[in-house]
Specification:
It contains five helices and two strands. It is an all-alpha fold. The relative contact order is 0.19.
Length: about 140
């Protein structure tokens, strides 16, 4: 699998995770509404930086990043999120799990980038950030 193919897969998952974060941000409710609402925006802001970094790396390698909604919907590995109102506790659990799963997926791509250390380095930084974000969500459920 080429670097651009791997990075496109990563881009799709990061975009989906960000859109789910905004969906939850708009629909969260419960006693921890404010802290979860703010935490979701913080996560989305970080995801936007990573999305841009991955998309620009694809372009730098001569590929065409594809962030269209139809592409994301057809190929994201991120678990879907229920629509409607979302209880704060459920949001915390859902995003801790999704962030950890995304980190694991990205980790699985690292060996495919052994000949592209710059892309591998980008993914390593994103993995560390996903792990940190997952911890922030997990810590609020303890």
């Amino acid at each position: 699998m080429s670097s651009t193919t791997i990075l496109q897969s990563v881009l799709v998952d990061l975009l989906d995770l960000g859109w789910l974060g905004k969906q939850a941000h708009w629909n969260v409710y419960g006693p921890r509404f404010k802290s979860v609402h703010v935490e979701l925006d913080t996560m989305v802001e970080e995801l936007i930086v990573w999305q841009d970094e991955v998309a620009e790396r694809i372009a730098a390698l001569g590929g065409n990043p594809d962030g269209r909604a139809a592409t994301v919907a057809a190929s994201s590995a991120v678990a879907p999120l229920d629509g409607g109102f979302l209880r704060d506790e459920d949001v915390l659990t859902a995003f801790a799990a999704r962030l950890a799963a995304c980190s694991k997926t990205l980790s699985g791509h690292l060996s495919g980038l052994d000949d592209d250390l710059a892309s591998q380095d980008i993914l390593i930084g994103i993995i560390a950030g996903l792990d940190k974000q997952a911890w922030f969500f997990r810590a609020q459920t303890a």
